[in-house]
Amino acid sequence: MPSHVVRSSKVAIIVFFCLASCDSVDAILFMEKLGLSNAEVIRDAEMKFIHARGRFGALSELGPAEANLIKKELSSGEYQGYTFEVITVRGELMIRAIPKPVPNKQLRRFLLKQNGDVFELGVDNIIIGPVPSLRKTIVR
Questions:
Q1: What span, in angstroms and rounded, lies between the C-alpha atoms of 7 and 3?
Q2: Which domain holds residue 113?
C-alpha cells in the first residue's frame, strides 16, 4: 500500500478519535490546525505552479493528474473536514478554508493569503480579524 494512503488512513482515524473523545476545545483546535495546514500545502503548491506556468492553477491542476504538487484528495477541494477554494484578487492568491458541518462543533472559516497571513472569515466570507495564535501552532 502506498505510504500516502497509510498516512491518510492514520489521519482519518486520529480525526475520528479526536472528534469522538477529545475535549471539545482540543478537537476543534486540532481540526482547525489540519484545515489551515492543508491550506498552506495548497498555497505552497500554487507558488511552485505559478513559477512553472506563469499563472495560478485550479485545485484539480495541482493534483497528481497534472502537476502532481498535492494529494488527489486535496485536489478535489474537500479534505479532512474542510472545503478549499483558490481565489485571486488583483493577482494575489488567497485560499479559503470552509469547514464541513460537524455535529456539536463550531469550526472557524479561514482565509490564507499569499504572504502567509491568516484571517478568520464570517459566514458571509467577510474578514472578522487575524488569527495569529493558531498560525503559530500549526501542525505539519
A1: 6
A2: 3-136
Which segments of 22-105 does DSSP mark as H helices, in order? 24-53, 59-62, 72-75
Instruction: Give me Rg for the CA atoms of the chain.
Output: 15
Q: Kindly list the strands in the beta sheet with 92-99, ordered across the sheet, starting from the edge strand earlier in the chain.
A: 78-79, 82-89, 92-99, 109-113, 118-121, 127-130
Q: What is the pLDDT of residues 16-38, one digit of tens each?
A: 555 555 557 788 888 899 999 99
The values of phi and psi at residue 116, to 5°, are: 100, -10
Mean pLDDT over 82-108 rounds to 89
The CA-to-CA distance between both ends of the chain, in Å, stands at 22
